[in-house]
Design a protein that fits this description.
The chain has 191 residues and is an alpha/beta fold. It has a domain of 129 residues: Beta-carbonic Anhydrase, Chain A. The protein contains eight helices and five strands, in the order αβαβαβααααββα. Strands 2-1-3-4-5 form a five-stranded mixed beta sheet, sandwiched between helices.
Amino acid sequence: MNTLDEILAHNREFVEKKEYTPYKTDKFPDKKMVVISCMDTRLVELLPKAMNISNGDVKIIKTAGAIVNHPFGSVMRSVLVAVHALGAEEVFVVGHEDCGMSTIDPDAFISQMKDNGVPEETFQTLENVGIKVNDWVKGFSNVQESVNGSVQLIKNHPLIPSHIPVTGMVIHPETGRLSVVADGYEAVSGK
């Protein structure tokens, strides 16, 4: 049985037994928060438990490295939708120690893409239209600096109201310990 068949078989049983009922909520976050976190598998259940959030509490945006790297990219658009259309009143950027994005070697990554069948011509075409794939796939060397960079991008975005706290944190992927990198409440209160 392939993965899709396994998922669909489980889903049929899940729906038939009404196992969805404990998860019923609406689209508005109860805790009025949006959280941007890394897509790391260790954080799927650990991050919500460490932050005391449950289904329906927050909008969660997952991205490699918890990086917001473009002011008008899809991550930032999601933050804006959460704030302006869904009632989020604060933003948290949560990176983590031992993040795979801290070890990304753009040249090796591109080489892997080529090994996986992406033709060399594709990279040339992208370069010709001004997309520098090496820069685009680059990670970071310091998670605190990366989180703070994403916090600054969001906080200083022209479409984010100045009263919205944007907090940056780093979570330990084994213990769940949270460390504050940028206190969004201090920035809003002017401390």
